[in-house]
């Protein structure tokens, strides 16, 4: 669609805000934070926003819905100012992160079911993991596993005189559940309550509901991010055209 004369001249802060459903102060704040490129100023000092600013606002709004305002604000400077390769890599990494998170939830659920349905299995050293191996598998620090142990969430075995930690299948499953729920924002007390119920009564409705809720949230975020791809593509495409023209 050809640009109108008013669009060619740019948008005022208020007009840009109306286009994306923000307040004028939100638009100014997003520019200050680097979410938007710096706006041009008229001789009397008023901001004038161009098409690239509107695209950035729409991309930010879609991204904030998908991953949250803070991560979106952290990503946007790369998307609007970094190289196109860096911007594309950020988006690819985000899709991969959500996919890995969903995999972790599924692994936690599968491990939980396996442990609960086979309580007589004797685990040998081949079934267990060291603290560094488990931390790497979960994508957390070893210090996080030590903290979870201190809170009673995960109970590794201690072997040899050095008291080295070894995590058997049950402890690995508990650690996967904790990691999955902590990444979803759940606090330690409710996670501890769920694990206590699992140890006493097996799979409970609350435990399954928490895991299912986390998986649903991640799936919803993936769908929203897919919807945001149109705005992100438009933003990067405009940048590529501007770079080619320059």
UniProtKB/TrEMBL annotation:
Coiled coil: none annotated. PROSITE patterns: HTH_MERR_2 (PS50937). Residues 10-58, 128-197 form the HTH merR-type domain. The keyword Protein transport does not apply. The keyword Repressor applies. Keywords: DNA-binding, Repressor, Transcription, Transcription regulation. InterPro entries: DNA-bd_dom_put_sf (IPR009061), MerR-type_HTH_dom (IPR000551), MerR_fam (IPR047057). It holds the Pfam family MerR_1. This is MerR family transcriptional regulator.
